[in-house]
């Protein structure tokens, strides 16, 4: 049963993997436009970004279970129609990113959190919000807690790996993986152009071409078969390249084991069995990813519409989930303005100082 749930999750990961930039050349077929865009994406050196995720529906149908049912109902009430927005600015050189995340929860316990964050090559700063049901010390609320990535790595007994934040190398890796992945899928089955005027683009987004990737109940089994049998072995080979393996800190033994498992007759037999039963566990009502491209061949807007149902007939559980997500990009490769900046002085508190503040609170009781 664990494998069957994993297979359903893999179907969603497959579709999520194609959220990437497109190309505005109308002469290109949709898949070729997306493959060209993967190369174009490596030239993204700075941009502003607006992202949003909205949970339109989340429902769990399961056998009655007393107190846990009440807790589950409360959580579902909070998450239904909940949304997360992120406004951010990024530049590659010198590496600096700032984001402001706003989480809005609905239902009987309506609340909102705003969390600004800043990232540089070696440090991450997170502003501590005021949370009604979590009594934080007043001395820390509003300050930025500083996470020294190099120091944390040393404390954890691991080697500091600045390459893990090499965004340009990550873009190159993404380029290779996405080209390989998309190369295995049929253009007519999974990709299509849609007219910009029919794509429900937000105001201010000017697109020359919109490419849609679509997975349905009719093609999800084929898509997973292609992913496991064709694409994944090639992707493992890409990740095994020295420059990527070192960046991701992936062990050779783990890579060899993953590839061996894909080849094993036992794993293939189990996969084929789970795939044959997939219809019992996963229903895709809708799963579309649209990428809008401007006249300069850059992605300026992406959106995802997902409406699925995951079932566990052995336990009588059904989970329905509907959500929408979007990313909007502007000021691409322009000089950026950082409104938060890099926190300094009294605005910053270290992890050790934060722990001391919590310790003093606990000792007062």
Describe the model.
β9 (282-293) and β10 form a beta hairpin. A twelve-stranded mixed sheet has the order 7-8-9-10-11-1-2-3-4-5-6-12. It has one domain. The protein is α+β, with helices and mostly antiparallel strands and 365 residues long. It has helices at 2-16, 30-40, 67-79, 149-155, 167-183, 187-190, 220-239, 242-248, 252-263, 265-276, 278-281, 351-363, and strands spanning 46-61, 83-91, 96-105, 111-119, 123-127, 144-148, 191-194, 209-214, 282-293, 299-312, 317-330, 348-350. The relative contact order is 0.20. This is Lipoprotein. InterPro entries: DUF6612. It comes from Paenibacillus graminis.
As for the number of domains, it is 1
Q: DSSP helix count?
A: 12
The average pLDDT is 83
Helix content: 25-40%
Q: List how many beta strands DSSP finds.
A: 12
Pairing-aware structural class of the strands and helices?
A: alpha+beta
Reading the helices and strands in chain order gives HHEHEEEEEHHHEEHHHHHEEEEH
- Give the overall form: globular
**Low-pLDDT stretches:** 1-5, 7-13, 15-27
- Radius of gyration from CA coordinates: 23 Å
Biggest sheet layout: 12 strands, mixed
> What is the percentage of strand-forming residues?
25-35%
Query: Strands of the biggest beta sheet: in what spatial order?
Result: 7-8-9-10-11-1-2-3-4-5-6-12
Distance between the termini: 47 Å
Question: What are the salient characteristics of this protein?
Answer:
single chain; alpha+beta; twelve-stranded mixed sheet; 12 helices; Lipoprotein; coiled coil; DUF6612; signal
Offer a concise description of the structure.
With 365 residues, the protein is of the alpha+beta class. The chain has helices at residues 2-16, 30-40, 67-79, 149-155, 167-183, 187-190, 220-239, 242-248, 252-263, 265-276, 278-281, 351-363; strands at residues 46-61, 83-91, 96-105, 111-119, 123-127, 144-148, 191-194, 209-214, 282-293, 299-312, 317-330, 348-350.
